[in-house]
Amino acid sequence: MFSRAAVALLWILHFLPLSVLAALGNGLGSLLYRFAKKRRHIVRTNLLLCFPDLNEEAREALALQHFRVLGRSMLERNLLWWSSRERLMRLIRVEGDEKLQALKQTGRPIMLLFPHFVGIDIGGAAVTMHHDIVCIYAEQSDPVFNRLFLHGRTRFGNQQLLSRRDSLRATVKAMKSGRPICYQPDMNFRTRDAVFSPFFGVPAWTITGLSRIARLTGAAVMPCVSRILPGGEGYSVEFGDAWENFPTEDAEADTRRMNEWIESVVRTMPEQYYWVHRRFKTCPPGEENPYKKSAAARTEAPS
């Protein structure tokens, strides 16, 4: 019942101007910052690990900015689910699409590297309005929202969805269809195909799939970045140049290169990375999980 009521409210809100939605999303984020204590602790821990040179006041301001833009991303998904193509085309500025168009003409498989910024779904919508792609998704526990997420990712074009639980063989087969694949490897997944690779100088358990799949299929890797712009300005999605000399025979070096690139982009908009994820929950042997309550005193500033 709650899910259906929430969906009904989101549907009503999608008619509002983006500037109004943005203000509401900022307010929602401020409430989350105040009351979502567990997630706030995760964000504070991540920021302390990744930005140790910032003083406590600056990190706390960054945490609040993150929750505000996170609130926007949650609320503004309604645009991706129900707004017309014409409205979305006005709101989302796409840069570098000609690079992807040209790369597709070569016939080479393509991996679109989409890091987990809060605007990642906006980037996905922008891509599907211009291209048929393969997208790997995580099933939602709530069936109502699971259907909505799937609907949002298949509204435009002829998209192919793969569950995160599908095999590598399924991914490779889908790539041979000629569709670029949106790939998001920068989260802490439970898998043996991962290595500890530095991220902001912290060992992060990182899957090596970008290197392995690119080497297996001969795919080009093209980075993509989604940004949520202030207020009613909309969004931007940028396709970068395909990486040269990638992959190599060294999956660990390739993974380190990926993390270094993601880190460089995070520094341009640190509030928009997905800090509510426990990126460092898997630790090298002998190290303490930084998110444990025993570490809370080091990260939980007074509210």
Automatic annotation (TrEMBL):
InterPro entries, alphabetized: LipA_acyltrans
One Gene Ontology cellular component: plasma membrane
Compartment(s) of residence: Cell inner membrane
CDD domains, sorted: LPLAT_LABLAT-like
Pfam family, one: Lip_A_acyltrans
GO biological process, one term: glycolipid biosynthetic process
Assigned keywords, A-Z: Acyltransferase, Cell inner membrane, Cell membrane, Membrane, Transferase
Any GO MF annotation of the entry: acyltransferase activity
Keyword Acyltransferase applies: yes
Regions crossing the membrane: none
Name under which the protein is recorded: Lipid A biosynthesis acyltransferase
Organism, scientific name: Candidatus Proximibacter danicus
Lineage, opening ranks: Bacteria, Pseudomonadati, Pseudomonadota, Betaproteobacteria, Candidatus Proximibacter
